[in-house]
């Protein structure tokens, strides 16, 4: 009986123990395991401090998010800082481990977060790391976008076809009529071609069209004309400005042996390789290209470019009848000052202003060039802003040196390969850069302006 009473009392105690809630019945072993948790088990293997935003790699090692970003930015390698195993995809924050460290080491984590946020270098590294992950995810999405990728390929194919059709049409149709006097020697000009050359000097030249027609002046007679002949009958060009304009253009014709280019298409026909080089070079590096024109093509290209973009203040009674005479005058110090400011700060604005001056001659082409210059200005501003916000503005001289070497090597390679490239291919590249490059730059500008600055902390 006594034994039965002992068993009953034991059963009652066991029942009472089982009725207690689990959180009130903490065993000594659980207390021991909780108290035995140390900071070393939740420390980063880079900074050896408590993990902040712990990120787990595919190899299983955990690191602070900012430590991993600094390692990636300095090494440019997608591998574990400890075991050097490459990770797959883009590392994500371990949410379970982050919540655990926030609860166990709240004060330490809060202090470290404040220190990280106060450090601009770490913040920029985190932004760059997150931007790399966004671009990686965007590229993977583009690889599997199905119908969108298909239609993009179809659009690119149609664009290439449109470029080739445009090149074929302009190479053998519209531009052909401008090529005759540019490629034909002056001594072989017919009287009709001499009159056509005279009319292209300006509206004022219509006054002297009839004498040239009556005298049946051909190319050989044109080369023998001088100031005395133009002043006497039957030409009777008594206006001194008109006579100077005709003589200046005549001197250019004698020096070149052909008619000098008067517009973009004639310039391209006379200088096919140079026009293609300038088109791409002005887009990639306008400052170096303008400096190249200053050194090696001062009178023919640089001076007209400067006078067009930074015109001199002309008096009301001043009458300049020849565009060539106007652009061969040495610029004033005001023009040089305006040009240098635009050259250093807004080089693409110079290109836009030059295209705007030719708006009456090249209606749509000038508009394409102006839009492209605006887009390239925005892209250049975004690139400088990224350098400034990432505290990498000190690397600008190094980047400029690398860019200079790249442009020089590409220009040298172009000079070597240009004679072997078919003219049709060069025309395709020319019209692609002229008319379809702005479409690509619009997409780049949208990506730069609409891309959100991701806060990783």
TrEMBL record:
Primary localization: endoplasmic reticulum
All copies of domain RING-type, residue ranges: 44-84
Chain ranges passing through the membrane: 148-170, 368-388, 408-434
Entry annotated with the keyword RNA-binding: no
One annotated GO biological process: proteasome-mediated ubiquitin-dependent protein catabolic process
Top-level taxon of origin: Eukaryota
Enzyme Commission identifier(s): 2.3.2.27
GO cellular component terms given for this protein: endoplasmic reticulum membrane; nucleus
Domain annotation SAM: ranges: 189-256
Keywords recorded for this protein, A-Z: Apoptosis, Endoplasmic reticulum, Glycoprotein, Membrane, Metal-binding, Transferase, Transmembrane, Transmembrane helix, Ubl conjugation, Zinc, Zinc-finger
Cellular compartments annotated: Endoplasmic reticulum membrane
Signal peptide coordinates: none
Class of the enzyme per the UniProt entry, highest EC level: transferase
UniProt catalytic activity: S-ubiquitinyl-[E2 ubiquitin-conjugating enzyme]-L-cysteine + [acceptor protein]-L-lysine = [E2 ubiquitin-conjugating enzyme]-L-cysteine + N(6)-ubiquitinyl-[acceptor protein]-L-lysine
One protein family per Pfam: SAM_1
GO molecular function, one term: zinc ion binding
Keyword Endoplasmic reticulum found: yes
Membrane topology type: Multi-pass membrane protein
The protein's role, per its UniProt record: Membrane-bound E3 ubiquitin ligase that plays a role in several processes including apoptosis regulation or reticulum endoplasmic stress. Has anti-apoptotic activity, both for apoptosis triggered via death-receptors and via mitochondrial factors. Contributes to the dynamic control of IRE1/ERN1 signaling during ER stress by inducing BAX inhibitor 1/TMBIM6 proteasomal degradation. Promotes the activation of TGF-beta signaling by mediating the 'Lys-63'-linked ubiquitination of TGFBR1 which is critical to activate the pathway.
Subunit structure: Interacts with CASP8, BCL2 and BCL2L1 through SAM domain and also with HIP1, IFT57, ESRRBL1 and BCAP31. Interacts with NGFR; this interaction inhibits NF-kappa-B and JNK-related signaling pathways.
Name used for this protein in its record: Bifunctional apoptosis regulator
């Amino acid at each position: 009986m006594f034994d039965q009473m002992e068993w009953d009392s034991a059963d009652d105690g066991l029942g009472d123990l089982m009725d207690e809630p689990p959180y009130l019945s903490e065993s000594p072993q659980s207390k021991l395991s909780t108290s035995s948790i140390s900071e070393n088990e939740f420390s980063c293997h880079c900074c050896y401090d408590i993990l902040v935003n712990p990120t787990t790699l595919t190899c299983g090692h955990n690191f602070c998010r900012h430590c991993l970003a600094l390692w990636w930015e300095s090494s440019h390698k997608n591998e574990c800082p400890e075991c050097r195993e490459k990770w797959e995809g883009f590392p994500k924050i371990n949410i379970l481990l982050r919540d655990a460290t926030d609860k166990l080491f709240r004060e330490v984590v809060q202090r470290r977060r404040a220190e990280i946020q106060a450090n601009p270098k770490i913040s920029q590294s985190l932004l760059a790391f997150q931007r790399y992950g966004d671009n990686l995810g965007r590229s993977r999405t583009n690889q599997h976008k199905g119908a969108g990728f298909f239609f993009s390929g179809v659009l690119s194919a149609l664009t290439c076809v449109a470029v080739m059709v445009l090149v074929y049409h302009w190479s053998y149709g519209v531009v052909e009529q401008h090529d005759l006097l540019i490629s034909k020697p002056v001594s072989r000009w017919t009287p009709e071609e001499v009159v056509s050359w005279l009319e292209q000097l300006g509206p004022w030249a219509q006054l002297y069209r009839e004498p040239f027609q009556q005298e049946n002046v051909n190319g050989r007679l044109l080369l023998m004309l001088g100031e005395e002949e133009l002043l006497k009958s039957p030409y009777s060009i008594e206006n001194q400005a008109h006579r100077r304009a005709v003589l200046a253009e005549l001197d250019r014709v004698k020096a070149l042996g052909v008619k000098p280019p008067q517009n973009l298409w004639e310039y391209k026909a006379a200088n096919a390789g140079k026009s293609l080089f300038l088109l791409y070079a002005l887009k990639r590096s306008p400052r170096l290209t303008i400096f190249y024109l200053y050194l090696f093509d001062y009178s023919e290209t640089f001076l007209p470019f400067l006078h067009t973009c930074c015109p001199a203040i002309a008096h009301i009674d001043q009458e300049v009848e020849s565009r060539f005479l106007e652009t061969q005058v040495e610029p004033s110090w005001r023009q040089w000052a305006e040009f240098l400011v635009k050259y250093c700060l807004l080089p693409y604005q110079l290109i836009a202003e030059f295209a705007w001056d030719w708006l009456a001659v090249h209606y749509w082409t000038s508009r394409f060039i102006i839009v492209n210059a605006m887009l390239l200005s925005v892209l250049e501003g975004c690139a400088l802003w990224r350098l400034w916000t990432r505290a990498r503005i000190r690397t600008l001289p190094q980047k400029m040196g690398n860019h200079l070497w790249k442009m020089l090597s590409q220009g040298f390679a172009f000079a070597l390969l240009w004679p072997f490239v078919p003219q049709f291919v060069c025309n395709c590249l020319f019209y692609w850069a002229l008319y379809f490059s702005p479409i690509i730059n619009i997409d780049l500008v949208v990506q730069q302006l609409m891309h959100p600055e991701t806060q990783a902390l």
